[in-house]
Amino acid sequence: MADLATFPDLHDKMDTLIASARRCFDLGLQTNAGGNLSVRLDRRDAIVIKPSGVGFAECTRDNLQVVDLDGTILSQSDLKPSKDLDFHRDLYRVREDINAIVHCHSPWATGYASAGIEIPCLTVQTIEKIGRMPLIPLSRNGGPQTEVEISPVFTDMHIRAAVLANHGTIGTGKTLMAAQYLAEIIEETAQIAYVRDTLLAAHGKTTADLPRYGTAAEAAKGG
User: What is the model's pTM?
Assistant: First the structure.
């Protein structure tokens, strides 16, 4: 069993994950024991991840799992890491810039995911912060997405977030807060998109103008 004292940032990262998980729960992005979130430790060869069967609101230092990127469980606990551990580990391996992952079954975004519709980046904020949220289909056997389906999408360095068909969303970032913000933006955008499309249909319209730039500064640069 590895000496967890070799991870001096462990408790700080755990506390940050606990705060992020609680925020997700309080905002209604995740209820019950679904979803998962993780953060890379500074040594970069291990992560902290939510355990399986534990809700976002119940995460504590005692139940969070520490796992090597090779899959070895380093923490002493009767609990198991999230069942989505493999795709978390793989994303950290293929993207050095990703230090945190927030995966939620947030209702508005998952509604789009269950309809097989990619959530459009239609606001100034989503164009700036995300650019595109690809819809990743179910696995070949019709089950939940794994690293086989997810990692190839994220080899594109421009991809920061994705929607999993019939499943939920993934937000990534250099920090947990950055990944958290993307999870929130995804859910907000899904709700806005639904309202927009409902209003367009009610008024007999099929399209609406989209902003060309994410910010006025980008517009001034012409890029």
Answer: 0.90
